[in-house]
Amino acid sequence: MENISKFDPPNFGWLQVKLSKNEMDFLWESIENKGEVWNSSLAGNIACSNLIDDKDNWFFNNVLRNLMEIYSNEYPQIWSIHNQFAGVRHPLTLDTWWVNYQKKGEFNPIHHHTGKFSFVIFMKIPTEYEDQKNLPHAKGSNSDCISNFEFQYISTLGDMMPFNYRMGKWSEGMLLLFPSQLMHCVYPFYDCDEDRITISGNLTYNTSISLPVEEVEKAAEAQQKKEELSQQKKEWGDIPVETLKSYKKPKIEKVKLKQKPLKKGIFE
Ligand SMILES: [Fe+2]
Q1: What distance in angstroms lies between residue 95's CA and the mean position of ligand 1's atoms?
Q2: 220 lies in a domain?
Q3: Distance from residue 53's CA to the centre of ligand 1 (Å)
């Protein structure tokens, strides 16, 4: 035998980032000035959710724009999924974002978002997974759901695969950016009277703004080059360098997270 290769077919993952103190301060201030009640537009079985405002587009310009760029570089194929109608002339902008105050027993059922990219930010997590798992009704269970955030996606076998984030103080200040179609849910926590505070939002094309044709053509050309570079070759056993570059890193992070909760953000 020779040239044995293992294949992990490409899929669309997500970005995990630890926000800086400055960025967190901005978010806490935005939450203080929260706007209208937003519950009726959300899947969450959560009593209190409010829209918030991105003052002077600060969070979009300093954080979200960069993360979308990084995502598009890591997963260039997302562009052809997002841009189903060739030659979209509208910029991706922050459509809506809101704050959730989740109380014990409340939950967010499996759902996806509207938009192209979405994100969640863990502001305050008053419980530790290890303590929640020790509660009488969870202790004997063979699942690790209680109090956690979970992505779900289809495997090559056609099954729904869970990817579970074990919630605790370690996750405060963490942002996850993901394609809006990616299914996810939040399981309830118990035995704690403090609120769990998270922010979520959606980024989508702003159709009230039309970009110049030349700008769109230039961006499309650059994107096509990225896609060509990362396209998998058809020959069996031949792993293209670009594929390894794009997908190997997230896979390693996933193994770390599965075995035990990650204590620090990957960009710290
Ligand atoms: Fe969500």
Answers
A1: 14
A2: no
A3: 18
CA of 10 to the centre of ligand 1 (A): 23
Q: Give the CATH number for residue 161.
A: 2.60.120
In a domain, 62, yes or no: yes
What is the number of domains present in the chain?
Answer: 1
The helix/strand/coil state of 204 is strand
Nearest to 172 by CA among 92, 247, 265, 236: 265
Tens of pLDDT, residue by residue over 9-48, are 888 999 999 999 999 999 999 999 877 777 777 777 877 8
Per the confidence metrics, is the pTM higher than 0.85? no
Runs of H (alpha helix) within the chain: 21-32, 58-59, 65-74, 78-82, 129-133, 136-139, 213-230, 241-259
User: Any idea of the CA torsion for 10, 13, 18, 20, to the nearest 10 degrees?
Assistant: 100
Residues 112, 118, 120: CA angle, nearest 5 degrees: 95
Range of the domain at 185: 15-212
Smallest CA-to-CA distance from 101 within 125, 83, 81 is with 125
Q: Report the SS3 class of residue 257.
A: helix
